[in-house]
Design a protein that fits this description.
The structure holds two protein chains of two kinds.
Chain A (H helix, E strand, L loop, with lengths): L9 H9 L5 H20 L3 H11 L2 H12 L4 H12 L2 H12 L6 H7 L5 H10 L5 H26 L8 H22 L4 H19 L4 H24 L5
Helix pairs in contact in A: 1-9, 2-4, 2-9, 2-10, 3-9, 4-5, 6-8, 8-10, 11-12
Chain B lengths: L2 H4 L4 H26 L7 H23 L10 H17 L4 H19 L1
Helix pairs in contact in B: 4-5
The chains are: A mainly alpha, B mainly alpha.
């Protein structure tokens, strides 16, 4: 992304963000939703409900868990706890993104509304691009990208439901494999401070370990433990090399 | 509620999705806003939060590579790990061109599948 003049209007930044729908990450996420679409068709949950939960939740892992709960006939509290646990990871992501995109005058209600559109892909994409955007353009840029992505995927689910009931094995495999390598490279490329590198490595190693130690909660436990380890490492490095290093 | 009545297009299903889907998801986002609104991105606490957020996503990534569902689950785990590792190395060597990392990872995966089939 090229640096553009700081006096562009909010609308222009919103449209610039919306244009991000034609990008590799947008394509990858839509690929994942195509996979979700064929999965939910197989389970028999009606299209309107699948599209409704896509727009209202906008968190693919949570949506998979909710559909799993629905077809298992899980009680409302059981489903809510399972989905809530998987969505907990959104909180630190939102906390990190908010200072990047808000300006001093941004009202909280606006951030509360826009936070709905933060999910892993929109988080990674925005974190990567905001540094090239002047402060006043960041919120509209994020809103343009994230709202467009959400709406586009709701439409995609509604249109493709039942049309693509089974993808060719190779195509599905290639689509599913895009997501992890995209996340690794984009988070690495957008890191500005060293604890991000430590945290990435810690999470990749601890995820599988806690998969055996604490099945069901492995992501949450690995994330918190890995994050604390990465933070401690970064601090001790900073102390060792002197405060001016960071 | 039995699964049958759950799939009726009645209000109950939408209420179920709203409470067990929307509310329990967005409540974490709202908390994130309220906390993030009080912190600047170079504060000490923010370093810790950023570490945890990154490690959480990394743990999800590890899950996708090691325990995939669907089409990838039939591919050998060493090939998936190798493809990601080689793709990531290519990304670093290409001075962090994401597209290079992604293309190399896919080529290694499918080249490998082709070679062992």
């Amino acid at each position: 992304m090229k640096r553009v003049n700081g006096d562009n209007s909010s609308l222009q930044w919103f449209l610039k963000g919306a244009a991000g729908i034609i990008s590799i990450p947008a394509f990858i996420l839509m690929g994942a939703f195509v996979g979700f679409c064929s999965f939910s068709y197989e389970t028999g949950v009606p299209m309107i409900q699948v599209a409704f939960m896509t727009g209202m939740m906008w968190a693919l892992p949570g949506q998979l868990i909710l559909i799993g709960a629905m077809i298992a006939g899980a009680s409302l509290p059981a489903a809510a706890i399972a989905v809530g646990l998987s969505s907990m990871r959104l909180m630190p992501m939102v906390t990190v993104l908010i200072p990047e995109i808000r300006s001093k005058s941004t009202p909280t209600w606006k951030l509360l509304f826009l936070s709905h559109f933060i999910a892993v892909t929109t988080w990674v994409y925005t974190m990567q691009h905001v540094r090239d955007i002047p402060k006043n353009g960041r919120l509209p840029f994020f809103a343009g990208f994230a709202i467009t992505m959400t709406c586009a995927n709701v439409v995609l689910v509604a249109v493709l439901y039942g049309v693509i009931d089974r993808l060719p094995e190779m195509v599905a495999g290639a689509l599913f494999f895009l997501t992890p390598i995209y996340f690794i490279t984009s988070i690495w490329a957008s890191a500005r401070t060293p604890e991000v590198y430590f945290a990435m490595v810690a999470g990749l190693i601890l995820g599988p370990i806690f998969h055996y130690l604490t099945p069901g909660y492995s992501i949450l436990v690995a994330g918190i433990a890995g994050g604390i380890i990465a933070f401690a490492l970064e601090r001790s490095f900073r102390k060792f090399w002197g405060a001016d290093e960071s | 509620m039995s699964p049958d009545s759950l799939f009726d297009n009645g209000y109950w299903t939408y209420l179920y999705i709203l409470i067990a889907g929307w509310l329990v998801t967005d409540v974490w986002r709202w908390l994130g806003v309220l906390i993030g609104n009080r912190l600047s991105n170079d504060s000490e606490v923010m370093y810790l939060v950023r570490s945890i957020a990154t490690a959480l996503v990394a743990a999800v990534i590890a899950q996708m590579i090691l325990y995939p569902s669907g089409a990838l689950s039939t591919t050998p785990v060493w090939l998936r790990i190798g493809a990601c590792a080689i793709g990531f190395s290519a990304f670093l060597l290409s001075r962090q061109q994401m597209i290079v990392g992604i293309v190399v990872a896919e080529v290694v995966l499918f080249g490998g599948l082709f070679a062992i089939s």
